[in-house]
Amino acid sequence: MTLRALLIASLLATSLPVTFPGGQPAQAQAQQPRAVLRTDVTVSRETINLGDLVEGAGAAADTPVFRAPALGRNGTIQVSRVMDAARLAGLTPANPAGAVQIVVTRAARKIGKAEVEAAARAALVARYGMDEPDVSLALDTGEATLFIEPDAQGELRFLDLFYDARSRRLEATLSIAGSRVLALKPVRVTGSVVDLVNVPVLTRMIARGEPVRDADVRLERRPRSDLPGGVVTGPTNLVGKVARVQLNPGAMLRDGDLAKQDVVEKNGLVTVVYEGPGLSLNMRAKALEPGGIGDVVLVQNIQSKRQVQGTVIAPGKVSVTLGIPGPVASALSGPAVP
Fold first, then answer.
1. Which end of the chain is more exposed for a tag (fewer CB within 10 A), N or C?
2. Which of 85, 106, 127 is the last residue of a domain?
3. What's the CA angle centered on 231, arms 226 and 234, to 5 degrees?
4. Which tens digit of pLDDT belongs to each residue from 291-327?
């Protein structure tokens, strides 16, 4: 070979890159990250891309290769199928764990039965004025749990809510803002509803004339339809009232079972507290009727015999409040209480 030929061969050898099967230069392949199989994958799309299954997939990472499981479900893909898909993209990923299959989970927002029933209770309270009803629902899908897109974080709502008070049946359609799944395939719910209310129940026997203490009453949830007429419901303030008849433990209270404890006696002397614009007086008077705290009773000035109504605010004390002080001061004129 002549000297000229040797020089040309040397220049060609230093300027042309060496290539490997697959068409990529050796220097480019050396700079790429090593492709490695993943063994446990979570996706949020309807398709599985090669980059989900192979770490270091490079430019081929966004290539869709398989269909993802249903929302909230998982599935498996044989490693041999993943390797075939990788080779088509010019990759030969390593399998250091020696996996035979790859587990793929589809991310989802999980909505359980308890959440659906809580939303139904709120809807029934808002629309039908129920008092914390007890609700038992079922999805028309037959599943106990509903899965929707993980980014659909809107509030659970009921569309076309229908409640039949006679049969206690409820029907509605579930809706969540941002859920394409529910928009394309609405889910119907059906179920039974029991309107429960809080009922005060006695924890011990209370004799006639005995006052009720805080520890004597507990609240129990009872179906409204099963309550006899006149039963007290709700967190009514019963403490301090006295029993008109003997009351047994476990008994539900009726409207006439208790009475306010009189702190003002009929014909007893009371202090009348008058407060008005720029005026405050304490005077002595006679109560013409008994009353408990909060009752409105008639009182009489001992000297002038004039009468006025006031509210019992404490034992032996009645408050009178009017906008014009003159007539009241005149009606209650008499010796002031020091």
1. C
2. 106
3. 95
4. 887 889 999 988 888 899 999 988 899 999 765 555 5
